[in-house]
Specification:
Two copies of one chain form a homodimer.
Chain A lengths: L4 E8 L3 H11 L8 E3 L4 E8 L2 E8 L5 H9 L2 E9 L2 H11 L9 E2 L5 E5 L9 E5 L4
Parallel strand pairs in A: 1-4, 5-8
Antiparallel strand pairs in A: 1-5, 2-3, 3-4, 6-7, 7-8
């Protein structure tokens, strides 16, 4: 099996502090302090639930993919991330199936981990991130 | 804390068999055989990842909420479900915050578990399901 673990779900938001307050106060879910993630041009807060992470993503510049998503669709669920053992092998399998990747080569995310996105047009409307397992 | 666990993510699809083939063959994720769930008017297949369930939901009748979602938005991520200990207490907390519920009273889902939905307009574009822990 290529993947048997969802690493996280990403949610696009306009104001991470306001949305963190909703999850914390209306739902009673613990939310981390927002932090700046320069590789994606976003501020991120995490809902560290026991079953995995939910990320709240607020764009901090116009180049951010989250900015484009918000302009086109408004706030909402943005992507689902599957952890994979070998990103290059995972990308080859996606292409062999006939699906389209957004990234031709793996790029580097938080902590230097390698990742690539599958195009939602090839994935029945879902933006799918493939994230290589950390080495540590 | 009211909730510290995501129970599942729901994805709305036109054809559960076709989408199951995508997850299975392109991503190498195990997918269960589709089953009929009469309380929601859907066929469901599960991606039983080690970090929690992903549900693929295909409507089987016009009354299904998934049918309306597909007509309005097309295929894509539909909802996120948080497990709660006490559904009535969780619903009171949502209302006390000033957010709007779709269900005035809990309704009964698969296996008789009590659930209620928070309106996406109150939840920054995300349809949130609250699902009471099973008793077994």
């Amino acid at each position: 099996m290529m993947s048997d673990r969802v690493d996280h779900i990403g949610i696009a938001v306009n104001d991470v502090v306001e949305v963190a307050r909703f999850y914390s106060e209306a739902l009673g879910v613990e939310v981390s302090e927002p932090e700046f993630e320069p590789t994606e041009g976003v501020k991120i807060a995490f809902l560290p639930t026991s079953s995995g992470l939910v990320e709240l993503l607020e764009p901090v510049n116009e180049a951010s993919a989250i900015r484009k998503f918000l302009d086109n669709r408004g706030e909402g669920m943005h992507h689902i991330c599957f952890e994979v053992l070998d990103i290059e092998a995972a990308m080859r399998q996606v292409v062999a199936f006939g699906a389209q990747l957004i990234d031709e080569k793996p790029r580097h995310g938080r902590g230097g981990r390698k990742l690539a996105f599958v195009h939602p047009k090839s994935a029945h409307g879902v933006l799918i991130e493939l994230l290589e397992l950390g080495k540590e």
